Amino acid sequence: MAEVDSSSTTTTTTTTSTTEQQNGLNRIKMGDTIILNINNGDNYKVVKLVQGLQSHVVGKCKKVDLLQLIGKPFYSTYQVLPNGTMERTNQKDIEKELTNLIQTTIDADNSKLTNLNTTQKLTEDDIAKMKQKGSSASEIIKALIENSDSFHTKTEYSQMKYLKKKMGRHSTVVKILKPTSKNLIESYYTKDPKKICNIRFDTLGQLLTLGNVKAGSNILVVDSSMGLVTGSVNERMNGDGVVLSAYLGKGPSLSIVQNFGFSPEVEQCIIPFDFSSINKLNLKEPESSKDLKAINYLKQGVDSLIIVSKYSPLSLILSCLPYLKPSGSFVIFSLYKQQLLECNQHLSTNKLAVNLTINEIWMREQQVLPKRTHPMMSMDGASGFLLSGIKVKSLTHDEKLNKQQEQQKPSAMKIDQAEIEEEEKDEKENEKGEEQPLKRKREDVDGDDDKQ
Amino acid sequence: MLKSKKIIESGDRVIVYFSKDKMSLIDIKEGQVFNSKFGSFKHNRLIGSEYGSKVNSEDGKGFVHLLHLTPELWSCNLQLRTQILFNTDISTILFNLEVKNGSKVVESGTGSGSLSTSFIRTLAPKGHLYTFEFHEERVKQAQRDFGANGFTDYVTVTHRNVIQNGFKLDDQQNMIGHIDAVFLDLPSPWDAIDHAAQVMREGGMLCSFSPCIEQVQATCLKLDESDFEGKRRKKEKRKDNIKTVEVLIRNYDVRLQEEEILNLYNPYEPNPNAIQTDNNNTNNGDNNNNNNTENTSTNSDNGSTTTVATKQPYKKKRWEKGSSQPFTLGPMEGERKMRQLAKPESEERGHTGYLTFARFMPQEK
């Protein structure tokens, strides 16, 4: 019981210390990174608030000083006025304003709708003039309705749809998002999914749980998602653990990590290093001093391995696997099932891993409205594929000893064994030089004996 | 479950893994024996083994692998008391609730503790899970499980009907206004939303899991009336700012399957010799035709990899060896070979539930 008591006091102390932080947690401070979600649409903007920040173009407004947001809460919504000031509003107020404009007509239906552009009497020039005078969006929309012949003949739903469309065109509503993994993936996935390896939010979520990401772990991440995966792993561990982020190419490309706005203590958990160091390690080449820290962690072994890369995953997983501790989880993302099948085949045949699973996710969003609930008309069908598994040691202690004896004096009884060995020789002869030592090293680290 | 160890000791909880659908959770204790279809294993022999290692049974019946317990393996091995959530839903919930080390999370109900375990893995050691369950026996079992898994410091299990009594705990005053995420798996989640709002911090996330769409509708209406908002849709800019999704997993059954290929004449290939009977051949159309198929297949049968290797840049792998067998079908000839093929599992879940997400943003006063 005494143990339980002491533990409960420790919990309370940690809670009080986080309480102070929590009060300011949702407020925007100088130095924070914010995501602007403009008009609820495809348009996202990531901005870091620094002293002397230049004014930004936000939607229709050319000059908006974003520093006026300091002290405001994250996830608040603003109407951007033509003069560049931001007025706090919320979605519900906007809805209310629009609802007031609806003219309910009994018996309205869409039977008289035409595709001609003659129903609107207001011209582009008129609207431009109104904007110059500084009319608000709702004033413009009011004018549009007054000059429309067909508006009042539409159904209520159609009217609302029309208003929302016009609202989006003539006003700028901005929501300020916090740069969390969830919001960052949303903004990058909508803007340019290629940049982040086409990884979708639900797949990233799977990746983090299947990779058993938890505080206190050392995790090896092979990342070609501009740092999104590295950052998400680091966000979960929140300063407790090590993320070894291997980059492929000239230098680390972790620009998204900067956008997470980690504190220095949390950010220092990420150790970027050149993937070729792993290759050099496998080849037993002299170590470069540059990545010594990462190499030391690798030699100790990592708890989990996550691979999100545009390169074919087989060679990557094989070169990383020696550094994953036995019973450690690994997960590989690929857009293509075939690449993962290849990995699965290699890992299962060579008995390097168990619980191998290839899966994909089917995700569908629902529109939920009274009497109008249905799945969304368009859905994203490409979640990509995940191969997950647990690394094991392929031989028991006894088998290892037996194998050593067999190798010393191969008997006629052991044809299979001899054959396998012979084939391995052939394989090695056929292989290119770079793969050969890699394989040897893998067995070294696993603790299995070299077959030669 | 939270610490990773190298060597198995007495008192550890270990997964004994035979295959994907056959594994057991055992508590290692000196002097005990674990008996199964795959043989018997003395615990004394398991103690001192490395995690991830392979162990043969005493009676030579088979072998197993010894694995660390993870929340994912726990979900597959726990004693079911209720319908539980599995990894696909769990991952989506954790990600959208933005749970991380340090988060304070409220969950109701606890059920069998499958989701709770994942919550704790992710929020420990700096965070805390407050989980509520109205069924007393489940509360006790959950407490036992959390204790055995080493979670005591990170979780508070409370026996309570939250619809009536809410989430406030008398001895945890500082949880009010500081809860980062709330998860509801209740028959009437809409009745718990006001309670949730009382403990949540500004900008916190709420998730409700419901199997029925009617429940989702009522929940969304209630959320919309309360101080919750979500992301409005790209195309449908209607009064709907709360996100509801369903996620289903599609697992692939990957097997080494026998594939039968008939050596037929290909009328579309200008070179009549160029029928590929061997997958390994990618660029050598002159290798096989109907006349010399027998030769090639015997080659690979004998394992004379050297001759094959000179012709083929692709190297023979161990699992392909000897797998190519000639066969006849009436007057036709063909080849039988093993290949890894994948198909979706025939038995899959068609539906688990709808996940509704919303963010708590109280109006400025």
Automatic annotation (TrEMBL), chain A:
One of its GO terms (biological process) is tRNA methylation. PANTHER family: TRANSLATION INITIATION FACTOR EIF3-RELATED, TRNA (ADENINE(58)-N(1))-METHYLTRANSFERASE NON-CATALYTIC SUBUNIT TRM6. Residues 1-19 have a biased composition (Low complexity). It is found in: Nucleus. This is tRNA (adenine(58)-N(1))-methyltransferase non-catalytic subunit TRM6. Belongs to the TRM6/GCD10 family. The keyword Coiled coil does not apply. The gene is trmt6. The keyword rRNA processing does not apply. It comes from Cavenderia fasciculata. Keywords: Nucleus, tRNA processing. Residues 427-452 have a biased composition (Basic and acidic residues). It holds the Pfam family Gcd10p. Residues 1-24, 401-452 are annotated as: Disordered. InterPro entries: SAM-dependent_MTases_sf (IPR029063), TRM6 (IPR017423). GO terms for cellular component: nucleus; tRNA (m1A) methyltransferase complex.
Automatic annotation (TrEMBL), chain B:
The gene is trmt61. Pfam families: GCD14 (PF08704), TrmI-like_N (PF14801). Belongs to the class I-like SAM-binding methyltransferase superfamily. TRM61 family. Coiled coil: none annotated. S-adenosyl-L-methionine binds at residues 112-115, 133, 185. This is tRNA (adenine(58)-N(1))-methyltransferase. Residues 62-359 form the tRNA (adenine(58)-N(1))-methyltransferase catalytic subunit TRM61 C-terminal domain. It catalyses: adenosine(58) in tRNA + S-adenosyl-L-methionine = N(1)-methyladenosine(58) in tRNA + S-adenosyl-L-homocysteine + H(+). GO terms for biological process: tRNA methylation. GO terms for cellular component: nucleus; tRNA (m1A) methyltransferase complex. Signal peptide: none annotated. Keywords: Methyltransferase, Nucleus, S-adenosyl-L-methionine, Transferase, tRNA processing. It is an enzyme of class 2 (transferase). Residues 267-307 have a biased composition (Low complexity). Its EC number is 2.1.1.220. Residues 267-352 are annotated as: Disordered. One of its GO terms (molecular function) is tRNA (adenine(58)-N1)-methyltransferase activity. It is found in: Nucleus. Residues 333-351 have a biased composition (Basic and acidic residues). Its main location: nucleus.
